[in-house]
Amino acid sequence: MDDLFGAGRDGAAAPEDDGDAGESGDSRRVSPRSPLAVRMRPRTLDDVVGQQHLLGQGSPLRQLAAGTDATGPAGPSSLILWGPPGTGKTTLAHVIAKGPGRKFVELSAITAGVKDVRRVMDEALTARDLFKTTTVLFLDEIHRFNKAQQDALLPGVENRWVVLVAATTENPSFSVVSPLLSRSLLLTLKPLTDADIEGLLVRAATDERGLGGRVELDDEALAHLVRLSGGDARRALTALEAAAGVAFGDADDVDAAAEVIEGIAAGTAEEAAPVKIELKHTERALDVASVRYDRAGDQHYDVASAFIKSIRGSDVDAALHYLARMLEAGEDPRFVARRIVISAAEDVGMADPTALQTAVAAAQAVQLIGMPEGRIILAEAVVHLATAPKSNAAYMGINQAIADVRAGLGNGIPAHLRDAHYPGSKQLGHGKGYKYAHDAPHSVATQQYPPDDLVGRNYYEPTANGAERDIATRLERLRRIIRGK
Asked: Which of 188, 225, 270, 371 has its CA 20 to 30 A from that of 156?
């Protein structure tokens, strides 16, 4: 499965599943040896972490979980859940399957084929007609099914032999066939927030199905686990369990640590004071050092400042370090991309006009493909900018022009440049004497363009760096012709 799992507050976890082609035909209690994420699987929608935009009273999910149709007698009762890993797609399917008169069957698009789908449909029809039981078919990674395999689902969905709950991490508009989309409700799951993950970890540390209050998470360890989770609930719970194993004893004694964790889950662990999980435990368990970085505090601004100043100073290695530091700390890559675009215009400018093109392309590509691959694109843009010739001439030019405007300079517009298209404009002298630049040699005419009080004022002063060397020579000739000197 590629997702999970809010966390439950009480009661037994959902049954484990087995069977051919991923089908779950029988139920059994979750073993204490089951991963923490499985033990903490919710029993009801109220226990699910996050996705509150889908869980309001009367919502399709609420109705399906209660055993009623999602949209009334005439509407579809199947769902397509679209969202990133670890946001609760599998969990929602299990909760829906707990409704009255339900049978849960699970298939994976990685291993199942048309034959498996047809078998499930036949069994579902029998269960409905003979036993008044509704089959909930959970199909994970539906985007991996080809058109023929997806078409095999249509009779069962259209005739309501099954309630299909299909999960995908890819845009269903491109990966799911139109007939199936039109017969299903498409629900978009959002990444879990830091607050969602934090609440989930705290609950797992105290819940009897989790670590039973036998551990305490200090603030630094909790923040580290939240950062490393990347909004993925399963990843967060797996990391917590690993850190608890380290905290309970010698990190080298893996068997002893596992025995303690299993004893807590089974309720057979001896009474003892809670063990504190500290930052050093999470670092040792996950083999990832904590990055000292506060996205809402000084570190956010200090590292971003050092990042931009390293690009401006042409230190590509330092720039890459600060880039890695931000990304590893969980900084929003879109924030980083925006800073790179600004740097391209402010610090590289016309010394290398292609730098801005690279920066904008990087920002768009990061939004298109996301992380972790987005780090490669951001790194390429950083290398381009840091190694490019630098010029802030355009930046300084607009600042000086704005300063003059704010000082009240630039009175009026020369009459020959004013709009001469509306009736009566010519009587006001608009456009009189205007020289059409393309009629002049090299398409450059001698003519006044700025207001009278700004004639001769230079705002853009190109450097001798990179492409601006050639621009400076050309600009000098242009100004001589335009100003008639």
From this structure: 188
